[in-house]
Every structure is written in structure tokens, then in C-alpha cells.
Automatic annotation (TrEMBL):
Protein name, per record: Small CPxCG-related zinc finger protein
Region (Disordered): 48-69
Domain of life the protein comes from: Bacteria
């Protein structure tokens, strides 16, 4: 399955330094066997805006340039 990030719904949230929304959470990094490997900060707003569908992963959009000619 792989390593998971778990965000607790009971814990509060903090303002994000990037987007400014109160959507920064302390999350647990959890191994396959349930062992907590550590903690990290996750902004659910910023992560949502960076999300790419798996079908588009690895493909980049062409640059927005018009060829000189």
C-alpha cells in the first residue's frame, strides 16, 4: 500500500503561510504496518491546487508561446 498521510479531524487548523487560509494541519506519516514515522504540516488548500489527475501525470502542457516566424 505504501506510506500514508493521516490528518486528524479533531485537531485544529492553522493559517497557511502560502495561501492564507486556515487549512494548515499537522498530519501523521504512517507506515504500512501502522507505525507512525513522523509528523508533517499539510495545507489542504495548497495541496488541492497542486493535485493532478493520474492520467495527466508525466505530461506537461505545451508552453504558451507563439513561434516567431
Amino acid at each position: 500500500m505504501g506510506t500514508q498521510i493521516r490528518i486528524s479531524r479533531e485537531d485544529g487548523s492553522l493559517p497557511c503561510e502560502v495561501c492564507g487560509f486556515r487549512t494548515m494541519h499537522v498530519a501523521q506519516v504512517v507506515a504500512d504496518d501502522g507505525t507512525v514515522l513522523g509528523r508533517t504540516l499539510i495545507c489542504t488548500t495548497c495541496q488541492r491546487s497542486r493535485h493532478r489527475p493520474e492520467s495527466a501525470a508525466g505530461t506537461e502542457a505545451p508552453p504558451d508561446e507563439v513561434p516567431a516566424g
